[in-house]
Amino acid sequence: MKWLVAATLATAPPALAQEATDGDAPQAQRPAQDSSREAEAPPQPLPPRNAVQRVDENVVRQADDGFGATIGRETIGIYNAGSVRGFSPTRAGNIRVDGLYYDQVYAPNARIRRSSSIKVGLTTLGFAFPAPSGVVDYALRRPGGDATLSVAGTIDEWAGKSVEVDFTAPIDGDRLALGGGLGIYNNEFYNGTDSFQHVGGLLLRWRPSPDIEVLPFWQRSDVYDDQVGPIYIPAGDFLPPRIERRRYFGPDWATYEGTAATYGGLGRFVVARGWTIDAGIFRSYFDNAPDHFPYLERLGTDGVGRYTILGLPPAKLASTSGELRLSRQWSEGSRRHNLVVSASGRDRRNRFDGGSFVDFGPLPVNTDIDPQRPDFAVGLQSFDTVRQHNLGLAYMGEWDGVGQLSVGVSRADYFKDFRRPGVAPVETRATPMLYNATLAVQAQPGLAFYAGVARGLEESGIAPQSAANRNEALPAILTDQIDAGLRLNLTDRIKLIGGVFELRRPYFTLDSTNVFRELGAIRNRGLELSLSGPITAQLDVAAGAVLLDPRVTGDAVVEGRTGDRPIDVPRAQLDANLDWRLLFAPGWSLDVSASYLARRPATTLNTVFLPARELLNLGARYRFRLAGNVAILRLALFNAFNAYGFDLRGAGAYDMIAGRRAQAYLSVDF
After folding, report:
1. How far from 16 is each of 19, 197, 659, CA to CA, in Å?
2. What are the pLDDT digits (tens) for 449-492?
């Protein structure tokens, strides 16, 4: 168990993950829906994305739906990059940057990213090759227009503070412009740990002619002295005792340090009338220094466990990925067509393991421990290489007043090579055909019905240390999805989206001979709803809900080696957000965010469940002028009722959720 949890922590460092969550929400680039546009006209270069400056960022007002969106530093929705319909879009390779394939290691940060959004069901129309579990699309900032400078400062009641500076600098009118920013953070976390971090990014938008656009970019995050709180692993079928918040119990030397970076570029070239080439190339990596991850394991009902620390040598996870796409657009009166030929691929390499555990003996919870740093034994490391190439053909058509059609087929060539010291190299290959098809029919103005099918490919990892076939590279797996639903315009601007879906994928666990292999399937069947738009001129809503029936089927369930529900997947989830502009107090607005998460299995056998929880966040904005410049004062109260609970860090491994926190930030656009 510890090794599985450790692998997760080492791959997604806590501080980097938090930065990505706090500042990484994007809004997908919308497909053109203007029925008056001539499809044979050359596609226009994407406009500068600085029309909305930092003071204007408001995710409730600007989100297209309630499924999942980030604008600037604010995130809403029932889904995120790690969980859509009970599965992970990131793990399934469903990440895009401005619509182009990206094998994500480090997500685009807020210095270069304008927004992100989760696309599922009907909202995937307009995207080529959408896979099961939807699409996560990051939209990058595009420097251009006037010169701008935005400065924001943040402070919270835990003494966390930050300064962010973003700019746009035209160099040669609309032909050449530079943009980017820098953020410096003194982070304070819910468990009393802290860290220092700086995040930077640059973009250069070059348009040598109206038919050519090139957008190279670079981003980097460095984390220093990031103290790491323990993961709690009970000895039996029970939850950990209550852990004191905002108190760090461990030694100062138990820290994480590392660098994350992404660089590359996007390009668009209008070859001829109706012909367009789009390209994206990305290099992304985590480069970790020697790190330490503490555990309080074998934790008893008396609150006493054994305090152990995993010491890891330097590790690196890196991927080079991208896509080259040729599109042909044409129209026939009220019908518009888009034919796409795409070649995409990735080369991902991971160097990891080689660490060792040191046991510091029994320790009650909520008790300080400050031992001297021992010499951790360092062993040989493991290497994991994945190479994948996809060649696909897609068609997207739209007929005014009738509907839309999107179909695609691609062939994947997947190769995985796993090498662990003392074990023979293991290779696995797969060359499946993948497909997608979605049809939307407009029944009447403002009402459309849709149905779709999709098949995707994703990795299944390696067999765990406890298995007889430990470290064996498992085969890539196919995921299948069917869905259907509707979109109803309740008013000209309020939109209701509803859908039903079913996803299936193979399920791997230990058999009766302790071999880790496929022993069934996971089937997630559910209903999802989204309501978004302005209810009145002063009140906006963005809300989403999902009801899910997640099931594990097969021999593993029949023989009692696993429960019939997958871990950490709730049956219900709700996220509702309101933004209210006050007529009686010009410049002021209030916002509220309420969420509900149903109980979730915490162990493979379903013998322990995390209780349901409700969270409430409150906020206010005041828009005013500061020395003649537009400014926003933002006040927020997270987890207003100080709800207590745990989240999972693996089956039977826990960490507490964040408590109540007040925060204020001031943003000024010059």
Report:
1. 5, 9, 20
2. 999 999 999 887 777 655 677 657 778 889 999 999 999 999 99
> Which residue matches tokens 């207590």?
644
389-427 burial, b for 16+ CB within 10 Å, e for fewer?
A: ebebebbbbbbeeebbbbbbbbebebbbbbbbeeeeebe
Rounded to whole angstroms, the Cα distance separating 50 from 167 reads 10
DSSP state of 432: -
Asked whether the predicted pLDDT for residue 597 surpasses 60, the reply is yes
d(CA 255, CA 257): 7
Rounded to whole angstroms, how far apart are CA atoms 102 and 137? Answer: 10
Torsion of CA 28, 58, 156, 198, to 10 degrees: 40
**Residue 319 and residue 345: Cα distance in Å, rounded?**
10
**Residues 621, 627, 630, 631: what is their CA dihedral angle, to the nearest 10 degrees?**
-30
Q: Helix, strand or coil for residue 278?
A: strand
Closest by alpha carbon to 618, among 643, 595, 640, 596?
Answer: 640
Side chain identity, residue 614: E
- Residue identified by tokens 């013998």 is 607
| Type of residue at 123 | T
Q: DSSP code of 243?
A: P
Q: Give the number of other Cβ atoms within 10 Å of residue 334's Cβ.
A: 11
Q: How many residues does the chain have?
A: 670
- Beta bridge partners, 534, equal 540
Cα–Cα distance for residue pair 132/137, rounded to 1 Å:
14
Torsion of CA 203, 173, 48, 222, to 10 degrees: 20
| 209 contact partners, CB below 8 Å, separation of at least 6 | none
Q: Give the model's pLDDT for residue 90.
A: 86
Q: Which of 352, 353, 374, 377 is nearest to 307 (CA)?
A: 374
Helices (H) then strands (E): counts for the chain: 4, 37
State the pLDDT at residue 8: 44
Q: Which residues of 570-609 are buried (b: 16+ CB within 10 A; e: fewer)?
A: bbbbbbbbbbbbeeeeeebbebebbbbbbebbbbbebebb
- For the record, the structure tokens of 408 come out as 């695609």
Record the tokens describing residue 387, joined without a space: 């190479």
**DSSP codes of every residue in 120-189:** -GGGGTT-SS--TT-EEEEEE----SS-EEEEEEEEETTS-EEEEEEEEEEEETTTEEEEEEEEEEEEE-
Q: What is the pLDDT of residues 155-197, one digit of tens each?
A: 999 999 999 999 999 999 889 999 999 999 999 999 999 999 9
What's the pLDDT band for 72 if we cut at 50, 70, 90? confident
In whole angstroms, how large is the CA radius of gyration of the chain?
25
Asked if 561 contacts 570 with a C-beta cutoff of 8 angstroms, the reply is no
Please give the Cα distance from 486 to 481 (Å, whole number). 17
